[in-house]
Amino acid sequence: MEQKIINLGIFGFGVVGQGLYEVLNRTKGINARIKKICIKDPNKPRPIDSHYFTTDKNEILNDPTIDVVVELINETDAAFDIVSTALRNGKAVVSASKRMIAENMEALYNLQVENKVPFLYEASSCASIPIIRNLEEYYDNDLLNAVEGICNGSTNYILTKIFEERLSFETALQQAQDLGFAETDPTLDIEGYDPKFKIVILLLHAFGTFVKPDEVFNFGIHHLNDFDIQFARQRGCTIKLIGAVRRQNGNVFAYVLPHLIREHNLLFDVYNEYNGILLESAFTDKQFFVGKGAGGTATGSAVLSDISALLYNYRYEYKKIRQNNQPNFTNDVVLNVYLRYSAPEQVDLDKFESISEKYESPTFRYVVGKINLKDLRTSKWLKDKNVNVLVLE
């Protein structure tokens, strides 16, 4: 695609689509232009000229003059249909749909190989942070031990407002929604599903292992209460929702859980809608990436970066897959956690391998101890809104 203007066919014109339009028009030197945008509702007011829009997906998918399909919609099945059709039609594809990619990772990898076309999705993982590109290029031969951090800007914004401005959870959530950082239905964010999809994608690029989202345990900040917040403050900690992927004993495990973070941790000072990712390797120890993790222009800039990369025939090489030394995925790992509950019958403390601290009052109880992720993942306690868990450093 070098030395030519590439024509873009875009699916979706919400927050990210409009962000892409803005950054594309403000950026000089990228030979790309929007030819057509496919939307669902033709009657919805749009901030740009109506000639761009269509409701017929085939106007993009079957147009031989469109070089790159940019998929930015929220419907998982429809997004996979668009992306897979475009790849089979020999078109390069850029996507920001982390759920669709995570749930169909192996099929999408095979489609790229079979059709010899690139599929880029930097915006799906940490918005403005180029983490996939770094895993692909800089760490392609490095022995990584861990990829972990804050990869959901919505929950980090909420937690920042709770700890820094002492807002209630409800007020902080509303602010995040008003700013476009959280959806009207915030379930995927606050219950930890959104960062789980991102972690599944990063796991593949870091370790070459395909994992289904259902295999990865996620628990968010939806059970957080004032007692948990006070517990964190008394220990000089803040709370961050962390997605973690770590190699251990020849295997790799992953989860999304809220963590108590101490001040010495680099993630402590990642505020508002920013994301922060720590990489730990055998050769370079720890490296830290930080950048905006939510918002239209932040995500749109990552989409534009992928479009720009296509001008130079860039594609993911998935070197960790080709090295054929992928670790097996496991949930058999012991975590040190704080478990808060109200009544003894709510939890089964026999599942703990050891308990180092215990507290009881008329209203709240907690224990600090070690428990296997397998037992935490299959427990029924965490379905109770009066039970919460935090990982301790």
TrEMBL record:
Keywords: Amino-acid biosynthesis, Methionine biosynthesis, NADP, Oxidoreductase, Threonine biosynthesis. The keyword Oxidoreductase applies. Residues 130-307 form the Homoserine dehydrogenase catalytic domain. It is an enzyme of class 1 (oxidoreductase). It comes from the Bacteria. Pathway: Amino-acid biosynthesis; L-methionine biosynthesis via de novo pathway; L-homoserine from L-aspartate: step 3/3; Amino-acid biosynthesis; L-threonine biosynthesis; L-threonine from L-aspartate: step 3/5. GO terms for biological process: methionine biosynthetic process; threonine biosynthetic process. One of its GO terms (molecular function) is NADP binding. Residues 12-122 form the Aspartate/homoserine dehydrogenase NAD-binding domain. Its EC number is 1.1.1.3. It catalyses: L-homoserine + NADP(+) = L-aspartate 4-semialdehyde + NADPH + H(+). Belongs to the homoserine dehydrogenase family. This is Homoserine dehydrogenase. It comes from Chitinophaga parva. The lineage of its organism: Bacteria, Pseudomonadati, Bacteroidota, Chitinophagia, Chitinophagales.
